[in-house]
Amino acid sequence: MKHALRTIGLAIALAATPACSTLRAASPVPVEASLEQNAYALIGAYALTLDEATALVKNPATPRAVKTALAKAEMVATPAVELVKVAAVAHRRAETAATGAALAHALSQAQGPALALAQLMHK
């Protein structure tokens, strides 16, 4: 149940982001959500995913191939999500068109790796 809730949370957060705006999933973030709201939804969902991935890696019953795949996916996803954090803070401080564009770009770049990590955990 715990894993299913985290997966649903990540799916909702990713569905709410601009690059996935064509999805018609139920979302706690309104369609007209700000870039910042979308960014923080992605960051929060990724934190839950990363926590779950860490638990899987620490579990001695998890096959080595799964641990390796999770580690590789995390090495791609974490820097992308960190960039979203930096861009969200910069946009919050300045709220200019340039910081908004940087945040939108960071979100679009982080969605794929974050979702890939979540999907690896549920194969």
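the 2nd protein, sequnce then structure:
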Amino acid sequence: MIKKMINDLQSDILHIRKSALRTLIQFKMVSDNVWLQLLKDRFTKDSDPEIRAVARKYYDIFVGQPGISDTKVEHRPASINKTHEKILKENTEPSCEILEKSSPEEKIEYLSAAMEGKTRISKETLHLRLQKEKDVFVIASLISLIGKTGDQEDGKVLIPFLRHSDYRVRANAVDALGAIKTEEHFNEIVRLLQDNDARVKSNAARALSESGLEKALKTLEKMVCSGKVNQIASAIYALERFKHPKAKDLLDVAKSNLESVQKSDDLYSLLFNIVN
């Protein structure tokens, strides 16, 4: 099925490529790197402007830059109605009711326009949509927009999304909260250094480094001295991304501690096996 989808993405028949792109976006049956490369191939090589536009939008959302596109959209998808067309053309603000009735693609169009400063969406509308939205790509876009335009009050709305089941949402939530710089989210970002997803961990490390060197290092030092492999490993991950001599010194200590703890664990396991 995966091989067929990849072949269909390169088909000469337009409707087959569109169908394959929908399958790629909806089911994501391949690894992150392959998924991104397939999307990139479509928005850089496809002859159809609609396919290029859609592929670029989902690619940008995944990498945390929704709305940034060098792809010229020559024709809008047939599903976009006249109201949507008018709002985008006149740069007017879409209402809650319009966003409620819009397709995920249309919502992303609105949010992309707002990211680029071509229109605005009120804080109340963004918060309400964030509470009701089900599509993870739209949620990720909403979070990025709030992070760009929001303040510390908005941070409280975003904190629950750090525990969202979808890694794209968590990653964008970390970025948004890092941009807003609220005190309440600091411990949550530290927790995400142990996330299963590499992008979430990377965003958490960057947000932590931007929150203030002394505060970040103090927190990481506690993790380094915790005696727990997972916490020390997470601290190392973050410290490797800090560009400061103090971080380098703590990184050396962390690596030494990790080696000592791992040796202790190995010795304990050996003794346990001998006794039993």
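Confidence is low (pLDDT under 50) at residues 65-80, 267-276. The chain has 16 helices and no strands.
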